Amino acid sequence: MRKGESEYFFDCHCHTMTLGQVNITSFLENLVNNSDLEILFGIAGGNSGAASKRPSSIMHNTFNLLTLMQNDLVDIFTTMEDDLKGKFGGDSFADEEGLNLNGKRYEKLVLTPLLMDFKPLPGSKTRTHYPQPMKELGTVINEYSFAIKQYYKERPKGLLHILPFLGINPSAYTLKELETIIEDSFGFYTAKWLKHSVKGSGFLTWMAGHISPEKMFAGIKLYPPMGFNPWPEDPEERKKVEFLYSYAQEASIPITTHCNDGGFVTVEYKQAIHNTNPATWAEVLRRYPELRINFAHAGVSTTMQLPNLFGKKEKSWTENIFELIEQYENVYTDFSFNGISPKFYQTFVKQLSDFDRKGHTRYGERVLFGTDFMINLMAIPSYRDYYKYYNESSLPPEMRHQFGSVNPRSFLNLR
Questions:
Q1: Which pLDDT score is estimated for 61?
Q2: SS in 3 state form for the chain?
Q3: What pLDDT is stored for residue 28 in this prediction?
Q4: 341-376 core/surface letters (b: 16 or more CB in 10 A; e: else)
Q5: Is there a contact between 389 and 341 (Cβ–Cβ < 8 Å)?
Q6: What is the pTM assigned to this prediction?
Q7: pLDDT at position 190, please?
Q8: pLDDT at 214
């Protein structure tokens, strides 16, 4: 950060979705059809305590989540801000002057809401008599554009700065459709002579006054559990991802990809695991070594793990991610959702210490703070509680500042 520049805190992984934007029936149908029971163990999250997994707690958490999702998008944004200000109970972490964390005051909290692309894959079938409702991606984009402008209008001195990521599943579109969506969303095609046309040190300030469907996105969100394959065998599907990676690498557009074994799974479970495994990205990064990518959730397992009594112990997804961090300049990871319990940070500090002893220190510049709000409400009461656990965690204050303020600027190319 340059001298005299304002400090911001970043939630690099959150969701703000209304009930009308989510294709719930596709998830429930897959849950019924799935022959693998692992998905059932991942619904409430593997890092939540035993009490939060009781049926009564899960039901209460679900009601809390659905209550929030019944709001309009702009009301979800204001609720997040008001929660941090203590308006719904508990200690306040924010006031009219900014966000107070890590012994510091941050002028703004920058959200990067990750849009989800719920468009069914070609050939998808449903058991229902009526066709599944589906809000087109363009409609969702327009809703976000309106909501962000409305938030800035209602709260011109508000806490939040909102930089959404475009959710897209290349498998659901033709190559031409994909090219049109990406180019219209980022506008890089209009200024190919300017290599970094979608970033700049003034990007945060610029965005506040120029929100539109064509000038809104700070990155791209990919979601393998819904059928996205990072490196498909089919030549036509391969062309789509090659276009996406080439475009993102050339324009320095950050990508966040889901990376744990739970989530909103709408394809066969074994396929979802293959698609999500960070090892599947090895060939992608070999061919696109400058790709700016965040492996979300740090690869932490959410499902019941049986001990491997025979054979060589396989590396965890978390270990694989940190090896990619050591190998490539623009690989990051966030620990979104995992921080729903203070116990996570105790384990995480130990993992980081182990990496230090092995001489792997790049993680210090590559780990990102993220909440996975509003999905984390399945296992935690509020947005404010996630910040409380982080602020009281065993991570040193300077590290908490690094993960939440310094590293995100680098990932989002805002240096």
A1: 86
A2: CCCCCCCEEEEEEECCCCHHHCCHHHHHHHHHHCCCCHHHHCCCCCCCCCHHHCHHHHHHHHHHHHHHHCCCHHHHHHHHHHHHCCCCCCCCCEECCEEEECCEEECEEEEEEECCCCCCCCCCCCCCCCCCCCCCHHHHHHHHHHHHHHHHHHCCCCCEEECCEEECCHHHCCHHHHHHHHHHHHCHHHCCCCCCCCCCCCHHHHHHCCCCCCCCCCEEEECHHHCCCCCCCCHHHHHHHHHHHHHHHHHCCCEEECCCCCCCCCCCHHHHHHHHCHHHHHHHHHHCCCCCEEEHHHHCCCCCCCCCCCCCCCCCHHHHHHHHHHHCCCEEEECCCHHHCHHHHHHHHHHHHHHHHCCCCHHHHCEECCCCCCHHHHCCCCHHHHHHHHHCCCCCHHHHHHHHHHHHHHHCCCC
A3: 65
A4: beebbeebeeebeebeeeeeeebeebbbbbbbbbbb
A5: yes
A6: 0.88
A7: 40
A8: 56
| C-alpha span between 374 and 62 (Å, rounded) | 11
Q: 224 near 258, Cβ under 8 Å?
A: yes
Give the CA distances from residue 360 to residues 152, 322, 325, 364, in Å, rounded to whole numbers and listed in that order: 42, 8, 9, 9
pLDDT at 36: 45
pLDDT at 135: 84
Superfamily name and number for 8-411: Metal-dependent hydrolases (3.20.20.140)
Q: Where are the domains of the chain?
A: 8-411
**Alpha-carbon gap, residue 297 to 337, rounded angstroms:** 7
pLDDT along the chain (415 residues), means of 10: 68 95 71 50 47 67 90 98 97 96 95 92 76 83 94 95 95 94 76 39 43 74 95 97 95 95 86 94 97 96 56 79 95 96 93 86 94 94 97 96 96 84
